[in-house]
Amino acid sequence: MTRPCGVARWAGAARGLARGGLLLAAVAFAAPWAAAQALHWPTPGDGFEEGEPYEEWVQATASGNPESALFGCVRNNGNRFHEGLDIAPVLPRRRGEATDPVFAVMDGTVAYINRVAGNSGYGRYIVVVHGGVQPAIHTLYAHLASIADGIEEGVRVEGGQVLGIMGRSAGGYTIPRQRAHLHLEFGLRLTDDFQAWYDRQEFGSANHHGVWSGFNLVGFDPLDFFTRMRTGEVTSVDAYLASIPVGVVVRVTTDRVPDFVRRYPRLLWSPVPEEGVGGWEVMLSGWGLPLRFIPLPPDDRGLGAGNGVTEIIAVDPGQLENYRCRQIVSMEPDGAATLGRGGSRVLQLLFGFK
């Protein structure tokens, strides 16, 4: 069993948006939700819980740089994004292989299991959806050596329950024995209509994972979340997401209501108008995590007249620079901001744009 990493209650949080030019400022808002949530560390190692620096318990890439195990633009000299946290084994090895069990971090339901290592860069991986928190985020546990008996799709699991054994499984590349690890992600699913988007990309390979393909998942920093929960700076998923700075605000012209806001209604800032929508203001983090949605009614400015027109309303240059490898926004020499490849992909998936 693992020890709970933190149990806390939350009564409010503050983070908002002030429009004016292209910069964001913090203003207060209240969120009407409070809940107690036990959070479990996903491996037997106690380095994090004992307050050891991350350099002592993460698994670096071949570069040897511990930062490469963290979340963000930490690979290939800052040019490649890493979506999760890589945690090293601590238990004695068997024939050189890791033996550490991997635990569910919270109560939830197993949504997906990939048992064929070669079908994904994640190798064998499990996705657990945590319906007891709001928004109902998922966690993803990758590079597993094996799946525990009784762990099947649709099965309820408790925080601290064994999901499998840490390993080095992967598709398309090889993880050496000495770098076996758990790759852990926290995140949200962009669309239920992922297959249609995937087919349009003409990747030349099958989608083996349905809506649980990594292309359809966008996460947030596991270490930052664990740390701020442990210290009590935030005390729920809701509060943590509310605290993430907005990197860009995009106005989208469309009459569609994305399934994302039905799946995560906590991120909808005002009700969908009875007469339908003519567009949305969408707030994204610097790496493309959808944070807030404001529906806009059809009006005489042309909202609702077509689908797929986008306009950048505001940006935080510092946030976008921190995550520039994601290419959410491109900044022109004259200061103009346009959607980058990463930002366009997020909106394609959210709204079904081609």
The CATH homology group name of the largest domain? Glucose Permease (Domain IIA)
Q: Specify Rg, calculated over alpha carbons.
A: 20 Å
- Portion of residues in beta strands equals 25-35%
First CA to last CA: what distance? 47 Å
Number of H- or I-type helical stretches: 6
Helix content: 10-25%
Q: Sheet with the most strands? A: 7 strands, antiparallel
Number of domains: 2
Q: Could you report the average pLDDT, rounded to the nearest whole number? A: 88
Low-confidence stretches: 1-36
The CATH class of the largest domain: Mainly Beta
Helices and strands, in order, run as EEEEEEEEEEEEEHEHHEHEEEHEEH
- Shape, per Cα inertia axes: globular
Give the class from helix and strand content and strand pairing: alpha+beta
Second rung of CATH, namely the architecture of the largest domain:
Distorted Sandwich
Q: What is the CATH fold-level name of the largest domain? A: Glucose Permease (Domain IIA)
Secondary structure: number of strands: 20
